[in-house]
Amino acid sequence: LLRGAMRALSLSPALRQQCRPVASSLVAEAAQQKEGQGICERINRQVAQAEQGRLFAVVHLCGKQFKVTPGDVILVEGYWPPTTGDEISLDKVLLAGARDFTLVGRPILEPGLVSVKATVVEKTLTHTKTHFRKKRRKQYMRINFQRSPNTMIRINSIDLQRALDAESEPEREPSKRLF
């Protein structure tokens, strides 16, 4: 009984041959890798000569995604701990790019590749929202007022910290808080 069960699970010789990599796929893979190296070199050259233009980034912040460029002011809804005047570094960068290239993270770009620095400009409350409930003919009325906190953030800079294929280096002077 056991021999028959084991035999059914074993690989047949024809199936083993199908799993071997084909020489043409290896050549195609090598060509793709060479093309990728060329693209990385071109991007590194643009960044080194400061020809990339204005950088943009998509950052993940408080459960939402924001597309930001240097000088933008974004509004983060809900409670958020940083206080007014804090300089922060936004580390969850999903995507960064310029006029000629885009770096896409899976799901985020590796830490230390892109630096997004921001300053907390203002912490306020939203306008008053009225929640009015009434049950007719039952003498039941309730009025609730709600104001939720907002934080305004100015994006100071977006920079590529190192070359694309280079090893990551530890950050020299960390910001006060990282988010």
Counting DSSP E segments of at least 2 residues, the number of strands comes to 11
Distance between the termini: 61 Å
Give the ordered list of helices and strands: HHHEEEEEEEEEEE
Number of continuous helical runs: 3
- Our Rg estimate from Cα atoms comes to 27 Å
Largest sheet: number of strands, sense, barrel closure: 5 strands, mixed
Percent strand: 35-45%
- Strand arrangement, major sheet: 3-10-7-4-11
Which consecutive residue ranges, at least 5 long each, have pLDDT under 50? 6-10
Mean pLDDT: 82
Categorize the overall geometry. Answer: elongated
Helix content: 10-25%
The structure class reads alpha+beta
Give keywords:
3 helices, alpha+beta
What does this structure look like?
The protein is α+β, with helices and mostly antiparallel strands and 179 residues long. It has 3 helices and 11 strands; from the N terminus they run αααβββββββββββ. It has helices at 2-9, 13-18, 23-48; strands at 56-61, 64-68, 73-77, 87-90, 93-97, 102-104, 114-125, 129-135, 140-146, 149-160, 177-178. It has a 5-stranded mixed β-sheet with strand order 3-10-7-4-11, with no helix packed on it. The chain has a 4-stranded antiparallel β-sheet with strand order 2-1-5-6, with no helix packed on it. The model is unreliable at 6-10 (pLDDT under 50).
TL;DR of this structure?
The protein has 179 residues and is an alpha+beta fold. It has helices spanning 2-9, 13-18, 23-48, and strands spanning 56-61, 64-68, 73-77, 87-90, 93-97, 102-104, 114-125, 129-135, 140-146, 149-160, 177-178.
